[in-house]
Amino acid sequence: MIRFTLNGAAVAHPGGMSLLHALRGDFLLNGPRFGCGAEACGACHVLLEGRSVPACTLPVEAVAGRAVTTLEGLGTRAAPHPLQRAFLEEQAGQCGFCLSGIIVTAAAFLRENPTPDEEALRVALEGHLCRCGSHNRILRAILRAAREMRA
Ligand code: FES
Ligand code: FES
C-alpha cells in the first residue's frame, strides 16, 4: 500500500497506475482532468508538497509519504479559496476543462509571488492550454485574487 496525504487526510492506495487515474477513479476527485496524458496540456495538475506538477504521468508510488493537494483541497463551497472566488467573479472560463490545473498552478505561483505582474503570470501559466481561449479572463481572475490575498 502506498500511503500519502491527500487534501489534508491520510490515505492509502495499492498503486500500479498514474496519480491522475487514482485521484479520479479511486478517490473520486474530478477536479484534475485527463487532457493529453503526456505533460503537454496542464489539465491534470495537482500540488505535490506545494509545487504544481502534472499527475497524468506521475505514478502513485512517487507520492509515497508526501502531500498531494487537488483543486478540491484548496477551498470549500462555504469557504472558497480567493482564486476560486475570483474565477467565479470574473466568469473566467467557458467549458472549465482547463481551470482546475490552472487554479492549482496559480495557487502555487501566488504563494511565491504575491505581487505578480501579468508577464510573470503568463510565463507561469505557459504549460496550461485553454482550448476555449479564456486566457484574458483567467489572467484577470488571478490578478484579482492576488489583490484580495494581499488586502
Ligand atoms: S493530462 Fe497531464 S499534462 Fe495533459
Ligand atoms: S475554459 Fe475550456 S479549456 Fe479552458
Summed up, the helix count is 6
Largest sheet: 5 strands, mixed
What hetero molecules are in the model?
FE2/S2 (inorganic) cluster
Distance between the termini: 43 Å
**Sheet/helix structural class:** alpha+beta
Share in helix: 25-40%
Strands of the largest sheet, in order across it?
2-1-5-3-4
Using DSSP, what is the number of strands? Answer: 5
Q: What percentage of the residues does DSSP assign to strands (E)? A: 5-15%
Low-confidence stretches: none
Molecular structure report:
Keywords: 2Fe-2S, Iron, Iron-sulfur, Metal-binding. This is (2Fe-2S)-binding protein. It comes from Sediminicoccus rosea. Residues 1-74 form the 2Fe-2S ferredoxin-type domain. InterPro entries: 2Fe-2S-bd, 2Fe-2S-bd_dom_sf, 2Fe-2S_ferredoxin-like_sf, 2Fe-2S_ferredoxin-type, Beta-grasp_dom_sf, Diverse_Oxidoreductases. With 151 residues, this protein is of the alpha+beta class. 38% of the residues lie in helices and 13% in strands. It is built from six helices and five strands; from the N terminus they run ββαβββααααα. It has helices spanning 19-26, 71-74, 82-89, 99-112, 118-124, 135-150, and strands spanning 2-6, 9-13, 46-48, 51-53, 67-69. A five-stranded mixed beta sheet has the order 2-1-5-3-4. Helix 3 (82-89) crosses helix 6. The longest helix is centred in the last third of the chain and has 16 residues, at 135-150. Residues 34-37, 39-44, 54, 56 line the site of one FE2/S2 (inorganic) cluster. One FE2/S2 (inorganic) cluster binds next to loops.
